Amino acid sequence: MMRILAVLAVCLGVLTASALDCSQCGRAVQGKYLTANGKNFCSETCYEQTLPKCALCGRPFREGIQIAEYPDKVYCKECGAKPTCFNCRLPNDCEKLDDGRHICRTCKADAIFDQARAQEIFDQVRERMRNDLDLGTDRKIHFYLIGLPELEKRSPGETPPGGELGLYHYSFTEVTTTEKKYPWSKSRDSVKITNERFAIYALYGLTRARLIEVCAHELAHDWMQKNYPRIRDLKLREGFAEYVATRVNTLYGNGFLNTRIEKNPDPVYGGGYREIAAYVRLHGFNGLLEHFAELNGKG
Ligand SMILES: [Zn+2]
Ligand SMILES: [Zn+2]
Ligand SMILES: [Zn+2]
Ligand SMILES: [Zn+2]
User: Fold this and answer.
1) Distance from Cα 118 to the centre of ligand 4, integer Å
2) I need a labelling partner for 221 at 20 to 30 A (CA). Which of 63, 78, 190, 244 fits?
3) Is 144 in contact with 201 (CB distance < 8 Å)?
4) pLDDT tens digit string along 44-60?
5) Per the confidence metrics, is the pTM higher than 0.85?
């Protein structure tokens, strides 16, 4: 008899615990209760505590938005529909710049609009890339802070979906001279490159950290143009520029910016970066340069 009672008691206990306790607060559920994802809740409040919370307004939501580059940040539908800051690429209550770009308050507080300050940062990044990463060139590079319409006007073709915030521009004049030593000898063409000009443009309004990143990316293009000018593959060139940008971000203690580059879903910028990073992991940085030399020879 006693034994049976004991068994009954255990059965009752199991039933109560598994079917009728709120899985959030643990209290016994009375009367009406809520079921979601196979769990029971005593109230709407308890259920909402299990929902993801919006990174902007903090409210729990049932349907929201996730940003590919920042998988740990989720937004409710309303906040997700807000304009995206061109600096941090997150939805926010943004201010509109005169060229139509949106900027959030946090980024605005640290943004650089002044050419002289930007030039200082550019010079310093160039110096550090030369000294710490051995990625330096000795040519004169003009540096300009510009707005979006001017950047778009200067960009070749359409602005890629990778959304570059800067531009590297190399221009030159090709002079072909036809030589004939004697009237009966074969004529020989010689090609001479003159009027070489190097320029880097960056958007005004970038935060200091983002401007450093953009300068590093564009300076990597310059270094590649100087050392491996015949590599035309866009994925390789952008991937390398993004890879150098992550190295410089780390150098400056801005490693938090690298998540965007690493998770960028764009096949050229993100895909290119991941390919270069994987190659370096396997063969080292010198291995990558040997690979570039080989490709440059074929190009
Ligand atoms: Zn509860
Ligand atoms: Zn929200
Ligand atoms: Zn921002
Ligand atoms: Zn680029």
Assistant:
1) 19
2) 190
3) yes
4) 888 888 888 999 999 98
5) no
